[in-house]
Amino acid sequence: MAKLSEDKPLLVVQLSDCHLGAGDGSRLLGMDTDLSLNAVIAQLRAERPHIDLLVCSGDLAADGEPSAYQRFWPMVASLADRVICLPGNHDDPTAMRQVIGEASMPFATNLGDWQILLFDSSVPGEVGGTLNETQLQAFASQRDASRPGLIFMHHHLLPLGCQWLDAQRVSNAERFFDLLEGAGGVEAIVSGHVHQEWRSSHRGQCLLTTPSTCIQFAPKSEGFAVDDLNPGYRWLELYPDGHLETGVSRV
Questions:
Q1: Are the CB atoms for 131 and 176 separated by under 8 Å?
Q2: How many other C-beta atoms are found inside a 10 Å radius of the C-beta of residue 134?
Q3: Helical segments of 16-89, H only
Q4: Over the range 31-44, which residues count as b (16 or more CB within 10 Å of their CB) and which as e?
Q5: In which residue ranges of the chain is pLDDT below 70?
């Protein structure tokens, strides 16, 4: 990779919660999820012609069907210099690996001066999330505190005010925050799952969530409720001095 200028950022883009079905044109609550993902991709290509890293953060398939990943991967593989993925509660991690390859589902990778870490918060047979002890120990041993860090996972860590969704958040979040205290400069933890944009902080950590590429969930709802906002993606610009800028773009 060419040496970056002092002020030129690296661009990371996050796509999440695509929910592709077994066949082209499958629908989720009436929305054609292939069509909506293609609309987001078209906007992404127009707005961000060069992407250094694309992170696809779970629920890529509606029910873990291999055919969903077989359609998904060609749609995204050429969007960035590198594309990496992590599973969500609707995914089948084994089927994902068989289609996209082990190298595209790393735990940790470097991007310029930054370290990017991907946690699999999915639990087989469960809707909610947990970070297993193997990953927590790997984080403690592999986190490079000399680099600014950016963490992705599928499930959210903190309650965001949706009662039905908050029951599904990472069950051992405080254990994770304990580990973060000695982990150096982690600049943000970015999640999917909640199909909405949200930002908060906890114990000095910036927490972000990202819209789905299909339907959106209504904020502050007690029970399941759908919002009328359009699909979108999150962009993050990572600067060599260790700070980042981020935002969401919707179709």
A1: yes
A2: 10
A3: 33-47, 66-76
A4: bbbbebbebbbebb
A5: 1-6
DSSP type of residue 4: P
CA-to-CA dists, residue 22 to 5, 60, 98, angstroms: 45, 11, 16
Q: What are phi and psi of 141, to 5 degrees?
A: -90, -25
Whether the Cβ atoms of residue 238 and residue 218 lie closer than 8 Å to each other: no
- Bridge partners (DSSP) of residue 248 are 234
Amino acid type, 135 = Q
> For position 6, what pLDDT does the model report?
56
pTM > 0.90: yes
* 149-153, strands of its sheet edge to edge: 108-111, 114-119, 149-153, 186-191, 205-209, 198-202
How many of the other CB atoms lie within 10 Å of CB of 114? 24
Q: Which residue has the tokens 């910036």?
A: 206
Q: How many C-alpha atoms does 250 have within 13 Å on its Cβ side? A: 13
Tell me what pLDDT residue 27 has. 84
Contact between residue 72 and residue 60 where contact means Cβ atoms under 8 Å apart: yes
Max Cα distance, the chain (Å): 50
Q: Which residue has the tokens 């909405």?
A: 196
Please report which helix (H) or strand (E) contains residue 213, including its range: none
